[in-house]
Write a structure and sequence with these properties.
about 160 residues, about 25% helix, 2,3-Dihydroxybiphenyl 1,2-Dioxygenase, domain 1, alpha+beta
């Protein structure tokens, strides 16, 4: 079963945790110094906020799946529809180890398809080791090239620091 995923960048994490906790009627399931996540069942959504973006607002949307077969089906659907696909494979981001790929809609909004495999203690292992997070370009042809060099996890419509 799929779970809708929304990730927003916020300026004030504490104020937004308070706001979204009241809005959802639930506390976040994970809180870090720069990140919070709610795993809601009604509606079935993985809603995340972080202070890692250059400006507040929508970072990306996506679908979180429960197993590898569902992820493969989403990848097959995107490939069959000739959508430019950035396949990250096994990666770490947003305090989790995942298998994922990305597509970008005509407006430049990044869509993440992912299967979470487990939690990790840092936002992104590669960026923690490198000390920075870099963002691939919005151009799908450049995304694949940038992904090979990137320590980050999300295609970007800007050159700002951006991770899940």
């Amino acid at each position: 079963m799929k779970r809708f995923h929304v990730h927003l960048h916020v300026n004030d994490l504490a104020a937004n945790i308070a706001f979204y906790s009241r809005l959802f009627g639930a506390a976040p399931t994970r809180v870090e110094a720069d990140y919070a996540k709610w795993m809601l069942e009604d509606p079935r959504v993985n809603f995340a906020i972080s202070t890692r973006g250059a400006q507040a607002g929508l970072d990306h949307l996506g679908f979180q799946v429960d197993d590898a077969a569902e992820l493969a089906a989403l990848k097959e659907r995107a490939t069959a529809a000739d959508m430019a696909l950035l396949d990250e494979g096994a990666t770490t981001c947003c305090y989790a180890r995942s298998e994922k790929h990305w597509i970008t809609d005509p407006q430049g909004v990044a869509w993440e398809h992912f299967h979470t495999l487990g939690n990790i203690p840092v936002f992104n292992e590669a960026s923690a080791a490198a000390g920075a997070c870099c963002a691939p370009s919005a151009n799908p042809a450049q995304q694949a090239q940038a992904a090979a060099q990137s320590a980050c996890c999300a295609p970007s419509t800007t050159q700002s620091s951006k991770c899940c």
